[in-house]
Each structure stands twice: as structure tokens, then as C-alpha cells.
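Good morning C.,

I know you're traveling, so I'll keep this short. The sequence:
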Amino acid sequence: MPTPPMNAHAAATPTMSAPDPVGALDTTDSREPSPEDAARAGVYTLLAALLRDVPDEALLARVRELAPARGRDAFALAWEGLRLAAASVDPAAVDDEYHVLFIGLGRGELVPYGSWYQTGFLMERPLSVLRDDLAVLGFQRGPQVHEPEDHVAALCEVMAALAQDPEVDIERQRVFHQTHLAPWIARFWDDLGHTESALFYRSVARLGAVFAELEQRYLAMRA
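The C-alpha cells, ready to paste straight into the viewer:
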């Protein structure tokens, strides 16, 4: 799969100052992930940071400073589109956009939870299955976090952790992805990209959609 600049993960990680939706795996093994897995983790981490909360100026600055992707394929164009969007956006406008999209008065225009996309309701069986699988993998929700674990940002963070953990083989990653992301994530990116209120987040949706397709092929190829 095409890989983003290898500083993508380093640029995104410092923004992870808020309590994580789920705890990190204990990765005491000294082995390093492959360049491809590190790049995958970088994209997941960046998407999680942009979706977890309102992007502040520090995060937007880091996105602007990301190195350009190589080539002219769909991923490279989406990556560059996000960088350009971050360079031209007003942080106050992004704040307003995030609230309209994901918070709103009682509810935002989008409901970024796996249970909602799969059943039409929150806190349904997909969340119960997810919690069981997270427990097996060694994850647990942080004590200060109130969002359910099937929030799209939390699932991106889980996939980032799995991609970087040398103890988690590609088959376990594929099974987790196919169970908890593949059934609905393409629809989420499509909804985000076509929501009238999405301006900056249209570029986030474009990157997420292209990456989701690449990730699906990558995991199938490696399994």
C-alpha cells in the first residue's frame, strides 16, 4: 500500500494529551514495527486526533507541517488536500464546524459510533462485542472517559496501537478491523464528506475514505 511520510505518526502523537478513550496495550517488546505498520499507525493516530475533539491550533499547525506524500495517487492527493485545508482554515471556524457535526444541541449532524451505524441505536450489541474483544486484547477505557468505546476516534486509536504492537499479528488486526470497523466505516466517511456543514472535515473524510480502502486491501493481502 502507498505509505505516507514517515513523520506522520510523530507529528500526530504529541496531540494525544487528552485522556485516551481506551488504554494502551502493554508493549514492552523492544522490536520495532515495520515501516508500513508504523505508517498505518500514523494515519490512524492522525485521524483519531482530528475526530476525538475540536482540533486546536497546535494540531492544525502540525497537520500543516506534515511532509507531502509521495506520488499522485488518491492517497497522496487526499493527504495533500488535508494539509492545504489545515493551512487555510480559521481555528474558530473549525471549532464551530466540529460542534455542528459531532455535538450540536443534543446531537450533532453525525453520530460517530459503530453501534449507531450498524443498528440505528447507541449502546447496542456491536458495542458489547467490541468491549469483549478489547478486554481480550488488554484494552480498557480510561477512568475519565465517558464516550463509548465504539466512537470512531477510539477505534482508530485501537488500530494504531495494534499496528505498532509486535505481539499482535496481522491476522488479529484483520479480524478486529473486519468485525468492528469494516461493516460501517466507509459509510461514516461518505456521510462526513457529504454533510453540508463539513468544510475542513471534507478533507478529513477524503483521507479517511481513501485510507479505509487501502487498509482493507492491505489487511486482506497480508492475512
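Safe travels,
E.
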